[in-house]
Design a protein that fits this description.
The protein has helices at residues 56-60, 76-91, 104-110, 116-139, and strands spanning 147-152, 159-161, 172-184, 187-199, 202-207. With 212 residues, it is an alpha+beta fold.
Length: 212
């Protein structure tokens, strides 16, 4: 997926660095409801079948089971999340873009490591925050006049990642090389989004500038 998020090989997964010396992201993790209690000794949650009748809110809920719905390249929800990411880059405020980041509840269901919550917070979110600061610095003085054009997702390159390929318990769609297209003074440019992965038929960022 992006989601091992450093390698697809079956070596030991990276150990999240949770030492006090690591600068933790200052944003608060999204509020979560009480998780469903699994029966003792139960297997990892299965991927639920797709449902054409599922509501828009259910389609993206990080607390519900994964589906095999293939995410569209564009949707109202993706456009809103893309606008939030762009605002975070322009304003140099990473917290504004958390709606576009792969949700913690979903990551805890997907990731097959000892402490997925720590991995999400101390590795992935911290990298996301640093990358947004770096993209803001790349805009520099142009941040005041740059405006978002669109998100370009290379839909044909998206593929389903089976459980076990990237230290994952559940499958998901993954696509590399999406482009956040913007314009400054009539000239078009773009930031690459390294990796998007799916949850219930919606794209989310898991690696912005690089897989770390």
């Amino acid at each position: 997926m992006g989601l091992p998020l450093v390698s697809c090989s079956r070596g030991e997964p990276p150990t999240p660095d949770i030492s006090p010396s690591v600068a933790l992201p200052e944003m608060v993790a999204p509020t979560r409801g009480e998780p469903a209690m699994a029966a003792p000794g139960s297997a990892a949650p299965a991927v639920a079948p797709s449902s054409s009748t599922a509501g828009a809110a259910d389609a993206a809920s990080p607390r519900l089971p994964q589906t095999r719905d293939r995410p569209p390249a564009s949707s109202p929800a993706v456009e809103q999340r893309t606008a939030a990411l762009w605002a975070a880059i322009v304003k140099d405020e990473p917290a504004l873009a958390m709606s576009f980041f792969f949700p913690l509840d979903a990551y805890e269901q997907v990731k097959d490591v000892g402490d997925p919550s720590a991995d999400w917070k101390h590795r992935l979110v911290a990298a996301y925050e640093r990358d947004i600061h770096a993209l803001h610095a790349r805009l520099g003085a142009q941040a005041a006049t740059a405006h978002l054009l669109r998100l370009e997702v290379p839909e044909a390159q998206a593929r389903w990642v089976d459980p076990g390929e990237e230290w994952n318990k559940l499958g998901y769609y993954r696509v590399f090389g999406s482009k956040l297209r913007y314009e400054v003074d009539g000239d078009s440019d773009a930031f690459e989004i390294k990796s998007l992965i799916s949850w219930r038929g919606e794209w989310y960022v898991v690696h912005l500038r690089a897989i770390k």
